[in-house]
Structure formats: C-alpha cells, structure tokens
Amino acid sequence: MATAKKSTAKKTTKKKEITAHDVITAYMDYCLEHEKTPKSVYKFAKDNKMTEQDFYHHFGSFDGLRKEIWNTFFTMTMDVAHKNEEYAHFSNREKMLTFFYTFFELLTLNRSYVLFALQENQHMMSKMEQLKGLRKHVKGFAKELIMERNETKTNILLERSETVYSEGAWIQMLFLMKFWMDDDTPGFEKTDMAIEKSVNTIFDVFDNTPLDAVLDFGKFLWKERMA
Length: 227
Hints:
- By secondary structure, the protein is mostly helical.
- It contains eleven helices and no strands.
- Helix 4 packs across helix 5 (92-109), helix 5 runs antiparallel to helix 10 (189-206) and helix 9 (162-182) runs antiparallel to helix 10 (189-206).
C-alpha cells in the first residue's frame, strides 16, 4: 500500500536589513569600546553580525563612513530645527542661533565619539578630511541665510558677500567646536555663551555695527583664555 509522504514546510526567517544607521552606530561603538578605529571591513562586519556586502551597500570605506557621521549630525540638526513650527518665521539671526544650539546639543549627546574622532588624528589635514561634508553643509546653510537677507535690500551697496559670509560661518563653527571640546563647565554653559556672542557678533558685523559687538566678544575670549 502506498503511503503518502508528509510534506514539511520549512520556516524561513527573513534576515534583518542592515541600515546605514546600524553601520554608523556599530562603528561609533567599536571606536569607543576599543579606543581605536577598525582596520578591516571584513573583521568589523563579522564582529557586528553583518556582511561586507551590508557595509559596502551604504559606504565605500571607513573614510566615507566617518564623513557621513558628520553629515548626519547636520541633517539631524536641521530636522530638529524644522520641527519647531515657529522656525520658518525666525529671523536669520534666530535661525543661526537655533542651528548652533541644536548642533552642539547633538554633539554633547555624542561627546565621547566626537572627542575621539577629533583627537585621534593629530594631523590637522586628517581631521579636516572627515569634516569636508559638514563644511559644505554649513556653508550652504549660511549662504541661504545671506541670500534671504540680500533679497530684502533695495540698495546693492547694502548687500553682503555670500562667499565671505559662508566661509565666516564655517570658521565660526571650527572655533565653537574647539571651545566646546575644551569646555569643562556644567552643561557646557560657556559654550552656550560663546554661541550667543559669536552669532550676534557676526550678524552685527554684517549690519555695519561691529565695534561694540567685536569689543565685547574680544573681551569674552580674552577672559576665557586667561581663566
């Protein structure tokens, strides 16, 4: 007598998709736990239960990943800013203040990694390489603000250079990052003061009333340097 063969359905479990965020988180954790950067994509992927293909689907190299971390900091900052319903009605000065306050709040949440990333390489060029994308984003953001300001000016002589202003905003960013790295006050309150004074100064300069603001900011920097 023929017997019917019992068919068994194999259960297939779908592999969890590895996102760019997963790779970034794993990389940051690796750096902090090992106090060094990973040397091999193969070993890094294996240790984090992903494949090399998972890694290369999102990033071409560790250098590309490091740059993307800073790009993500910028993107997340702008996302948070735009969630504020009042942001669209802010003045350009208020938008710049919001940007810097939010950006440094985000850096503070990731302070251990940021300090590692900026202190691991002693060579300035190596540090700047990972910040290339961030530099482009910050300059683009500042350029948009000055373009908006120039549109309100009827006299071309009162317009401001978008190139000069955007480069100044990037230099301001580098200064504030160094200030924040060295800040040991509770809640990084001195960094908040530096943000307010530096943003107000740069806007006062472009509004043709620089003297008092520059002197005030200079006194602040001198006091902090000598403290």
